[in-house]
Amino acid sequence: MAFNKLSWCVVRLGEDFNWWVNEVSDDIHWEMDGLGILDPNQVGYMLDLLVQMQSYGLRNNTVEDAFFKFSIEKELPKSMVRLVASDEELMSPKDKIFAMPNLIDESDGPYVDFIDHIISVRVKMLNANLDFQQPLEIEELEESIRSEQQTNYASGKSCHAFDEIMSILDYVPEGYSLDADLNEQDLGEEDNLPDFGGADIEDDDAEVKIGNDQSWDE
User: Fold this and answer.
1) How far apart are CA 46 and CA 166, in angstroms?
2) Sign of the torsion formed by the C-alpha atoms of 62, 65, 67 and 70
3) CA–CA separation, 105 vs 109, rounded Å?
4) Which of 14, 117, 191, 201 is deepest in the core (most CB within 10 A)?
């Protein structure tokens, strides 16, 4: 097995209602401390926002390469679940999947490329839809992300991957608002989007509650 491939992982549901990785099939090259994984609801929410950005140059292959995909194998004690590798495509899944950032190299690699890419595309999207006196620069969004990360670090909190991604995909400069109709214009027909349903995942051998439904209502 190549060191950058994972065949299974064990995840736990944290008090923050996010899922965190406890163990992976390659325990030599991976650091587990603070390694978050997106649950199916979070994956679906992220995809809804990424679809809006496709007309602004989003590269689907960059998104695909940034994550390891997993499906549920079985439920374990103490709010943990064992997941197994999935061949699903992240951008067009046929089933509910978990997505773990490919952070084998935290300073360089597919997930870092993904973060840099969606920052660039988000800035392009905002410049195309908001009337700035001066075009928004990538550095402004990056500074906003760094500030939020430093706040989390100072309070001793681990930054979950979903929060990091949403800080980019939801970013709008202070004093501006993105047209609410933009979602409908860019998403097109709802039938083309993956249906992730409610907050429960049902499996032949396990039924696991995913996340906190109230977060999606907000």
Assistant:
1) 8
2) positive
3) 6
4) 201
Please write the tens of the pLDDT for every residue from 2-24.
345 789 999 999 999 999 999 99
Structure tokens at 140: 């402004």
- The answer to whether 85 touches 7, Cβ cutoff 8 Å, is yes
DSSP notation for the chain: --TT--SEEEEEE-TTS-EEEEEES--SS---TT-EEB-HHHHHHHHHHHHHTGGGT--HHHHHHTEEEEEEEEEETTTEEEEEE----TTS-SS--EEEE--SSSSSSHHHHHHHHHHHHHHHHHHHHS--SSPPPHHHHHHHHHHHHHHHHHTT----HHHHHHHHHT---TT----TTHHHHHH--GGGS----SSEEE-SS-EEE-S-HHHHH-
Q: Identify the bridge partners of residue 10 per DSSP, sorted by sequence position.
A: 23, 82
Sequence-ordered list of residues with C-beta below 8 angstroms from that of 140, at least 6 positions apart, any chain: 173
Give the start-to-end residue ranges of the domains of the chain. 10-210
Task: Give pLDDT, residue 40.
Answer: 96
Return the closest-CA partner of residue 149 out of 135, 138, 160: 160
How far apart, in whole angstroms, are the C-alpha atoms of residue 129 and residue 111?
Answer: 27
